[in-house]
Design brief:
Layout lengths: L4 H24 L7 H17 L10 H22 L4 H27 L15 H31 L1
Helix pairs in contact: 1-2, 2-3, 3-4, 4-5
């Protein structure tokens, strides 16, 4: 697959982040930083974003590195909101959105790298511009929008019931 040691570590930690997010979405309807799965998502996403800075197919600092820094900033701001604005409903909505958005953004390079590498020898996509990648990302974007809307409505109802 042409992965370095750092690339393998980055991939394993990234997969752990995705699994933790999915578990948190299923159990809590959001990535909940007060729960173990949310904490695992936060730490593994942070490590994945930072290790991405040491990986470059094309040499040097590139847009993928900026993307990773942006994901890192999203999860750090969400964590800050979780800790410092614990009882603020608006902060909860922003935190939920930032974590969901970071998850969606993490799936963009995941889909690209997976589809252009797997299965070995005959990958699903020939390049990042292959239509299957665009179609998959469109489905994920729709799922993100639906999920973010669901989280907002659920959070709002919880506030109204208090």
């Amino acid at each position: 697959m042409g992965l370095t040691g750092l690339g393998i570590f980055h991939t394993i930690i990234g997969v752990a982040a995705i699994v933790a997010a999915i578990i948190s979405f299923v159990r809590f309807g959001k990535i909940d930083l007060t729960q173990l799965s949310g904490k695992i998502y936060f730490y593994t996403t942070s490590v994945t974003a930072l290790t991405a800075l040491g990986i470059s197919k094309h040499g040097g600092f590139n847009p993928g590195h900026i993307f990773s820094l942006f994901i890192f900033i999203l999860v750090v701001v969400a964590f800050w909101l979780s800790v410092k604005r614990r009882n603020n409903n608006k902060a909860r909505n922003i935190e939920n959105f930032l974590l969901s958005f970071s998850f969606f953004l993490s799936l963009i390079p995941t889909v690209n790298e997976t589809f252009t590498r797997v299965p070995l020898g005959h990958p699903l996509a020939k390049s990042p511009t292959d239509p299957i990648i665009g179609q998959t990302l469109l489905v994920l974007l729709i799922a993100f929008i639906a999920g973010a809307t669901y989280q907002y409505v659920k959070q709002r109802r919880a506030v109204e019931m208090q």
